[in-house]
Amino acid sequence: MYDNLLHYGNQLMALGPGLIGLNLLIRPEATLQQMQYTIPSEPKARQLTRGLARIYGIRNVVIGCIGINLSLTRDPKIINMFYLAGLAMCVTDGIVAKSVIGYGEWTHWVFAPICVAGFAANYYLGDGWSVRTTREATAQFLSSKIGHYSVLTLVSLDVLSMIADFVLNLFKCEQGRKGSEWDTALEILSSVSLVFSCLFVVELMASVWAFGWKYFNSWFHCFDAFIVIAGFITDVALRGIIEEVASLIVVMRLWRVIKIIEELGVGAQEQTEQLSEKLEECQKENETLRKEIEQLKRVAQ
């Protein structure tokens, strides 16, 4: 009984983002007005708003399709990963809505307790999770090649958004350009930076939970954690304050470039270890074949 209820409940939860995404694709302005967002009257800003709404809709449709496919597996562990990702998405979207528009974040926060309830239902009524097993799986993912390249992708996108923000500000100052489209573009880039800050905080929390306090035995991890937390605080609490603070944020964010080098070094080390293991296997096979050949020669003689 509980299995069927969980199965259909998980499918309904996965349909939610997909339906919202379809509404945003078909009727972007009407959907935004239903969510109490103000549609700008200027044509260019209005067109940009519709485009961003459709991009947001495509993202939600993709998430809904992934959620439906995951719910068909009936595996509580896999489904709970979807709920955790949905919870992180709701939190980041709520922060962006509050920081950019100043209201409308309730449309995202309202789904957060639903994600928590779905996670709890799958945890207690499903097979359940072992804390130790989950921690080991998280540590394995963060230490794997996929985990390293995921962090590398996030850092690269964060650096690109930071460079784009710097170039736009520089071009705006040199050319003396003014207008709402420039301010809108800069606001979007700052919101993207805030989303990346939230993702880096989630990565830091997952690393500490998976590896324990020994994670901070490395000075690199300590300094990186300081940069992540400081960057998140400045992005959230110091938005729209004096320009000198913005330059400080840029300097702090440039530290993430070193993270790229560190991730590449880890990836190269993993490849070297794999090649070393293959070389050892080949040497063992070579020795075995030599022994067999010598034995055959003795028998032939």
Helix content percent band: over 70%
Query: What is the count of β-strands?
Result: 0
| Biggest sheet architecture | none
Note poorly predicted spans: none
Protein name: Voltage-gated hydrogen channel 1
GO cellular component, one term: monoatomic ion channel complex
Main location: membrane
GO molecular function: voltage-gated proton channel activity
Give a concise summary.
The chain is mainly alpha-helical. It is about 85% helix and about 0% strand. The model has no long low-confidence stretch (mean pLDDT about 70).
Characterization of the model:
The protein is mainly α and 301 residues long. The chain has 2 domains: 1-129; 133-301, Four Helix Bundle (Hemerythrin (Met), subunit A), CATH 1.20.120. Helix content is 85%, strand content 0%. It has helices at 2-26, 28-34, 43-71, 76-100, 106-109, 111-125, 131-143, 145-175, 180-211, 219-237, 243-253, 256-300. The radius of gyration is 25 Å and the shape is extended. The N and C termini lie far apart (74 Å). The model has no long low-confidence stretch (mean pLDDT 72).
